[in-house]
Design goal:
This protein is of the alpha/beta class and about 270 residues long. It folds into 2 domains: about 70 residues, Helicase, Ruva Protein, domain 3 (Orthogonal Bundle), CATH 1.10.8; about 180 residues, Rossmann fold, CATH 3.40.50.150. It has 11 helices and 11 strands. A hairpin with a 5-residue loop joins strand 10 and strand 11. The model has no long low-confidence stretch (mean pLDDT about 95).
Length: about 270
């Protein structure tokens, strides 16, 4: 039997030594999961102890996080996104907080009843968040990879959210009012953190020499057909995405910044 503080301190040493960016947060999340409690209880319940199967579970989670650098979301099998909890695994990218900005913009700006497609949906994060927050929209979600669509469909079924899923490479055929997409935007050869490079699906990350191949293809197909488009992109790709959108004929083109102040979402309307 081990005290909570001792278990956390031990995990902090291992996680910190391995170069994990947020060792304390990760240790708390993993210990709470091993004990089957909320994080707050680690500090509020003075009688809480780490014992029995929880010891082995916590040790294994810390080992996989520190040595193998498995993302926390894959270790737990879930990730919070907007107001939802999504099931995730290595078939799909881990949903990022930055992507919530794209949802926020679409929720605020899309007209009632708009027909929206989320291209490259992965876990279904964007499409499902829109279905949850804007049930008036007609939402479809596409992906080129059947394994990713399996994850997205399972999330939709579990959350009882109405989204049509399409197996398609790039923008699927259809009469769309709006396109939202978090497409691959990492340049080939760019070095990524081991959590990403070792475990997340490569096809959802890399997109040509400048990272813009997938975005370029969707913009080309949407040009002249779609009234509103929102595209997540890399922090140094804002100017390039704006140029692509202007070239596609959208009159009002802008870039929105994420909470860290980085250019993150290109919008054309």
């Amino acid at each position: 039997m081990t005290a909570v503080r001792e278990a956390l301190d031990s995990a902090l040493v291992a996680l910190g030594a391995s170069g994990v960016d947020s060792p304390r947060l990760d240790a708390e999340i993993l210990l709470a999961d091993a004990l089957g409690v909320e994080r707050a209880r680690l500090y509020l319940d003075r009688d809480l102890r780490v014992e029995g199967p929880a010891v082995r579970r916590f040790q294994d989670l810390v080992r996989r996080r520190s040595v193998e650098r498995v993302p926390v979301a894959y270790l737990l099998g879930r990730r919070g996104f907007r107001h939802l909890e999504l099931e995730v695994d290595p078939r799909v990218l881990v949903p990022r907080p930055e992507t919530e900005l794209l949802v926020e913009l679409a929720v605020a700006e899309l007209p009632r009843g708009a027909r929206v497609v989320d291209v490259g949906t992965g876990s279904g994060a964007i499409a499902l968040a829109l279905a949850d927050e804007r049930p008036d929209l007609e939402i479809a979600a596409s992906d080129a990879f059947a394994d990713a669509l399996d994850v997205a469909r399972a999330n939709a079924a579990r959350l009882a959210l109405d989204v049509t899923f399409l197996h398609a490479d790039g923008l699927p055929a259809g009469d769309w009012d709006a396109v939202v997409a978090n497409l691959p935007y990492v340049a080939d050869g760019e070095r990524l953190a081991p959590e990403i490079s070792r475990h997340e699906p490569r096809e959802a990350l890399f997109s040509g020499p400048d990272g813009l191949d997938a975005i370029r293809a969707v913009v080309a197909r949407a040009a002249g057909r779609v009234a509103w488009i929102g595209l997540e992109h890399g922090a140094d790709q804002g100017a390039s995405v704006r140029a692509l959108l202007r070239g596609g004929g959208w009159a009002d083109v802008r870039t929105e910044r994420d909470l860290a102040g980085h250019e993150r979402v290109g919008v054309g309307c």
